[in-house]
Amino acid sequence: MDQIRRRKPARERRINELSDRDLQNRVRILGSVVDIKSIQDQEQEQICAILDDGTGRIQVIINHSITLQPGDQIRIFGILSRTEENEYIINAEIIQDMSALDIELYKRVQDVKRKFKNLLGPSA
């Protein structure tokens, strides 16, 4: 029987938590679109969005057609890499519209989860 190859889950991160351990791995970040640029590549047109999650900003490269506006709340799932300038960048695989999410409540829940995980120790 054919084996289905599954992707590893994307690790939830804040921008200020990104590290070299996350390079070439899938991450997910929730934030607000700050700026959008169109990049003409030799093969196709790409979108470069700047995402701000309250702890920092990161460039996100989007290879498919999508309509984004500054101020949009989105969650990005993608592969973390570095630019030639040695800055982190995410190559987006999935983009979720999070405009209906209560951001303040979400942040409070995430803070509680982090505190609980820290109490349990590194093996949790």
Describe the structure.
This protein is mostly beta strands and 124 residues long. Helices cover 15% and strands 41% of the residues. It contains one helix and six strands, in the order E-E-E-E-E-E-H. The chain has one helix at 103-120; strands at residues 11-12, 26-40, 45-52, 57-62, 73-82, 88-97. A five-stranded mixed barrel has the order 2-3-4-6-5.
Top keywords for this entry?
124 residues, mainly beta, 5-stranded mixed β-barrel, 1 helix
Strand order of the largest sheet: 2-3-4-6-5
- Kindly state the number of beta strands: 6
Beta-strand level of the residues, as a percent range? Answer: 35-45%
Question: Which H/E pattern describes the elements?
Answer: EEEEEEH
Unreliable segments of 5+ consecutive residues: none
What distance separates the N and C termini? 34 Å
Tally the helices.
Answer: 1
Structural class per helix/strand content?
mainly beta
**Estimated helix fraction:** 10-25%
Cα gyration radius (Å): 16 Å
Largest sheet, if any?
Answer: 5 strands, mixed, barrel
Q: Would you tell me the overall average pLDDT?
A: 89
Overall 3D form: globular
